[in-house]
Specification:
Layout lengths: L6 H8 L8 E2 L6 E6 L3 H18 L4 E5 L2 E6 L9 H13 L5 E3 L8 H4 L4
Antiparallel strand pairs: 1-2, 2-4, 2-5, 3-4
Helix pairs in contact: 2-3
């Protein structure tokens, strides 16, 4: 079973993810990111690539798509919070997002808040 990251692991592993647009979810121990693409087809193309990546990693995001927007939430359900799997998937999804999409940074809380909050 995958374990929830402790405070020290969070501090080390979360570094850099905020720069790419990841935030702490408002109401859960989770990472969240919203991407805006030029149109629905571009958003769907990203989601198709992301689905293949997630399937290969056997770790799947919670996500929502409305026209050109894709909102991704990462949390490991087995441990009830952020695990190394979420960090790895966040980095993999960042590598898939092309330069034509824009990151909505006006969601969630600063990601390093997850490092300051003590996991249960």
């Amino acid at each position: 079973m995958t374990t929830k990251l402790d405070s020290e692991e969070r501090k080390a592993l979360l570094r850099g993810l905020e720069d790419t647009g990841w935030r702490a979810a408002e109401s859960a121990d989770a990472l969240v990111k919203r991407l805006m693409f030029k149109d629905f087809s571009a958003a769907w193309g990203f989601m198709s690539q992301a689905a293949l990546c997630a399937e290969k990693m056997d770790h799947h995001p919670d996500w929502r798509n409305v026209y050109n927007k894709v909102e991704i939430t990462l949390s490991t359900h087995d441990c009830g919070g952020v695990s190394v799997l979420d960090i790895e998937l966040a980095r993999a999804l960042d590598a898939l997002a092309d330069d034509d999409c824009e990151v909505d940074r006006d969601i969630g809380r600063p990601i390093m808040r997850l490092a300051d909050e003590a996991p249960e």
